[in-house]
Amino acid sequence: MATKAKTLSILDPALLGPALIGAFRKLDPRQLVRNPVIFVTEIVAVVVTIMFVRDLLSVPSEAAFSGQIAAWLWFTVLFATFAEAVAEGRGKAQADSLRRTKSQLVAKRLKSGEGMAYDTVPATDLRIGNVVLVEAGDMIPGDGEVVEGVASVNESAITGESAPVIRESGGDRSAVTGGTTVLSDWIKVRISTMPGETFVDRMIALIEGAKRQKTPNEIALSILLSGLTLVFLIAVATLSGLAAYSGTIVGITVLAALFITLIPTTIGGLLSAIGIAGMDRLIRFNVIATSGRAVEAAGDVDTLLLDKTGTITFGNRMATEFLPVPGVSEKDLAEAAQLASLADETPEGRSIVALAKADFDLAERDVIALGGKPIAFSAETRISGVDLGPRSLRKGAVDAILRFAGLAAANAPQAFNAAVEAVARTGGTPLGVADGNRLLGVVHLKDVVKPGIKDRFAELRAMGIKTVMVTGDNPITAAAIASEAGVDTFLAEATPEQKLDYIRTEQKGGRLIAMAGDGTNDAPALAQADVGVAMQTGTQAAREAGNMVDLDSSPTKLIQIVEIGKQILMTRGSLTTFSIANDVAKYFAIIPALFVVTYPQLNALNIMGLTSPRSAILSAIIFNALVIVALIPLALRGVSYKPVGAAALLRRNLLVYGLGGLIVPFIGIKLVDIVVTALHLV
Amino acid sequence: MLQSIRPAIAMTALFTLLLGLAYPLAMTGIGQTAFPAAANGSLIVREGVAVGSALVGQNFSEPRYFWPRPSAAGAGYDGMASSGSNLGPTSQKLKDRTAETVAALRDSGISAPLPADAATASGSGLDPDISPAYARLQVARVAAARALPDDRVAQLVEQSVETPLFGFLGEERVNVLKLNLALDALASSPAN
Amino acid sequence: MTLMGWLQIGLMVAAVALVVKPLGIYMARVFTGERTFLTPVLSPVETLFYGISGVDRKREQGWLGYTFAMLAFAIAGFVTLYLILRFQDLLPLNPQGFAGVAPDLAFNTAVSFVTNTNWQSYAGESTMSNFSQMAGLAVHNFVSGATGIALAMALTRAFMRSGAETVGNFWVDLTRATLYILLPIAILITIAFMALGLPQTLDGSVTVTTLEGAQQTLAIGPIASQEAIKQLGTNGGGFLNANAAHPFENPNIISNFINIFAMLAVGASLVYSFGEMVKNRRQGWAILSVMGILLLTGICFIYWAETYGNPILSSLGLDPSMGNMEGKEVRFGQAATALYAGVTTGVSDGGVNGMHGSFTGLGGLVPMFLIQLGEILPGGVGSGLYGMLVFAVLAVFVAGLMVGRTPELLGKKIEAREMKYAMLAVLVLPLSILGFTALSAVLPFAVSSIGTGGPHGLSEILYAFTSATGNNGSAFGGLSANTPWFNTTLGIAMLLGRFAYVVPVMAIAGSLVTKTKVPASTGTFPTDRPLFVGLLIGIILILGGLQFFPALALGPIVEHFLMLAGQTF
After folding, report:
1. Which residues are paired to A175 by β-bridges?
2. Does C127 fall in a domain?
3. Are B142 and B66 in contact (CB under 8 A)?
4. Which residue of C424, C511, C554 is the best one to mutate when testing the A interface, meaning the one whose CB has the most A CBs within 10 A?
5. Which of C90-104, C346-360, C518-532 shows the lowest per-residue confidence on average (mean pLDDT)?
6. Which of A307, A518, A522, A530 is catalytic?
7. Single pTM value for the model
8. Which backbone phi and psi does C164 adopt, to 5 degrees?
9. Whole domain around residue C186: which residue ranges?
10. Is position C79 within any domain?
11. What is the C-alpha to C-alpha distance for residues A73 and A216, in angstroms, rounded to an integer?
């Protein structure tokens, strides 16, 4: 379902129809008052409409002009509400399907903690602490924690990912989400949220933008726009007094037109659409933010805290090299290590087998068939191996191997010790390989950094964001991986408390922190971070502590989240600049038009050479309305973001939206004037 | 706000004493001692009579004197009512007044285009200077009125031209009072 | 326009550029409480002042406390000055025996000097006793300037400090600004002025017998000491009616140079102090560049327009080569007058050495527009800096979003609160200037005060309210402003321009000082580079231009076209 939304384009007819209806519905002043600039435009439109009616009754010859001005003022308002409706449209479709899922939910509420007896009740009757039974084929009725049992669950309704996931009691995989379906087995779930506040409910609310609160930047921007509106109100209102001095009477219709073209209707009309579209973009990346505030904060992030495992490196360490002692060939060592690892089912063991196969084309053999006796790996002995005829092959942690070979570290061959040290120095993990009491060499295990991650970090650095790798490894290992992955710094041997402390220290220095996490022990840090992205696969505690949930559970998502946050801010800034820069041309269109009768010399300011005062005023107001429509796609798509420094970004955007904003309306108004004149509209 | 009342009153009183009395009185003391002439108005005394300030323009209307610029200070060069005309560029009054001045100068025998200072009022109404160009245009009239050779008067004008400091600071100008004093001195000196 | 003219302008730029650093560093030391070479002399005076006033110099104030102290001091000053003016006939040092000043004029004048405006509805030589000039007006020339500096320092501290509560102690800043900065420099300038010919006496007038035998009475008085602080504190209120066009206030090109230099020195150096105090000198230079570029552009524009002259007068037979000389002094000519006019309105001085009201349409537009930009080039002592910082806050906000971050200025996030107060401050100028102008333009008894009809009359009214609201003090002098209507409304405009502006600015300081400084990164919008300089210039011009373009079009702009067409009123 989330994937389906991706395919809906901005101008999909399925969305345009409802958007048009929505645009008219949003004309309700009680709704519109949230957007001061457009609200003011609506009031002015009403006033001019009244002037039009008056003209119609008293001086019908004037009515054609005031009628057109009134019409274009209404269009201006409608274009703005339409932009918002279009932005909301995509989310609405998504929310509707979620809501359908929700309405079908019923729960098997257990009568007591023990046993399987239950009542069937609608999901809306569930309360926090109720325990419900969910069996194969049932939909989980609400958010909660698995308290008993294990089941495979299809979460595609939320994540769009069809592969089932395992949910079980205890540990980091205990959280379940209402609206997902149990495919096999059964679980008992303790409900942890009230109906109406579940994850699905929050998602619906967010997607619909119903509870969309203005973000801090949006509020600040609204203040700027309202302030500018007031400034222009003063400039225009006083103009009638100034004009009266020179004996010019300026009509209300014309003053209204001047006022509306000057106030920042472009950004005012598109402001909320930008925010909604940004959230929507996030949802298409399969990230649900609990507030717009968090998305915006993502744009401000200074420091990214990334878990090493799974984010920077593949989940497991892998064998990368065989380091034999003198007298043993590399191939012999590889063979011995492979044989010794066949009984080791851990990913590390598998990687040794795979490396031997890749490097020396040594096929996996069945040691039992060969008459060997496999020694399985255990966490206690930290050794695995095989006794094969006279050979007693072992591989394992260096100290364990030395103990097996009956050697003290000091007595080990120098080459062996040197290899162990060399591996440790680079941050790898050395594994010893022995045949009885003979040491054969060392296998180099290391964390393998994901391909391409270094480039991502370079981009982040260019964006001015510091990356911090968090790992439980010792500092040497951590440093080696950090330098290989290109992170700026690392936090080694990190405990949850240290993570939390680190975040607090950075925040004290004024920095904004983002982190991703999934475990329950990540929860405090997620809550403390300014942007905490919890993995959908994570625990309920983590999901509640964070202010975003990544449905794909991919920690690198943080980078995209930051980009989306920045894009929202950039789009607002660019359109604000564009909007303000536009006013210059509008003055040159309207001011000479207003006073050219009193002072014919002022026609010198009519540098666009507009046909007549009336065509100039009408052209300005038409351009002003059309530019909103023209910019809807940009508002929804967002200004493109490139990970370069702020200075370069600013230069580009200033050139495009600042300079462009100065020049475009001169051309646009002139073109509209040509059309207006050709059609004899005035 | 309440705890600000005492400092507000005390500071006002202290600053009035220091800046309103001590400072100007001390400066007056220094001025009267170190620069007595300047401190009292840079007066020019001829034969025991203060005839004017070297810095301030005064009215001349007789043909035998060089004339200063038109003045908007009182009835003209009123030292107690310094002022410009404050007429705007599109003022009919300004146009009329300028036309009148131009006509009077034409009557006095000047036919060349007039330097702008000749027919415009200065900012203070007490401008002590005129442009050398305007002075030169008056030479013939003054010489005739005093029955002096033109070149003698012209020479005096050239001697009176003050040049810009270091060649670029300020404008070329002629102090009318000083020129007229020199003219009077010339007339009474036996060498002539 | 001549090479000599350009050299004069260039020399001034060089002189100011040279003084900015040493004076800026000195002032930064004064306001961070470090020792300076004057400390041994002035420290006892300071201690005495605090002792008598009951000020604990170690106790700092939050923004509200600081603002209240500033307001209390302004009220005390206003009341004192009002009483001195009203009862000057009963006070000493009144050699000409002037009567007490009328209530509306006393109100207007007291407001005018307390707000650092120095709008003068009166002619000094025929209204004010020496006592009123010295103990009344000159005191405020010092302390209103010092108040501006103090406020600017409070805002500077808001950028310096991280997560703090207080912005300084107003009484300490006021005292230090006066004792360590204004007074010593004023003494030096007074001595230079006296050497150059400015009178300094307690006499009221001197009478001479002219060569033609007439009596000429010349107004004199303690002019040099007053002129020094009038320029240094960017006050501009002349001792004499013709202000710095009067030969006794400004006798020659050197005194003229010192006049202009004194207007610029402290204001420009404070910007350097700002950079020094926030530990980012580049930021100081960046702001100075903005000021310099805009101011020089304005000066060149005036120079060009005035040199072009008035075709109406040329048509009567005047040689156009000297340019428009109406209202100008021969000793200053076009270049030095344009320089003075640009600087006096770029800063919040308002002294003039040529009559702005007699400038050509475009030549008169520039001084008016420079005030309307908020007098930030470099502006009144202190007030220019905080005015410019408000613009910087706006510029950073509008454009800063374009780099995809919450806008920051010097590590302080600019958010809703700052925007709210910045917009409140920005609204003051158009509200007062355009509101009062429009009102006056339709009231017959107000319109009857104008001197020249047609668009120039509207310009006169517009200039008056621009000057009053901007706390400038210069005028299109054709307007007879000494009427109850103008004395009262201009007084209100001055109060709005100073206090309705300053209170939100202090609120910004109060909000910023509590914020944690965010360290800069490559993702931070750099505010100390040429790009920002260009951006800030653009924002200043566009915001200023958009507010006042309609009014300017109906005043000076149309007058320019009418002048070219030869139309008079």
Report:
1. A145
2. yes
3. yes
4. C554
5. C518-532
6. A307
7. 0.90
8. -105, 175
9. 7-281
10. yes
11. 29
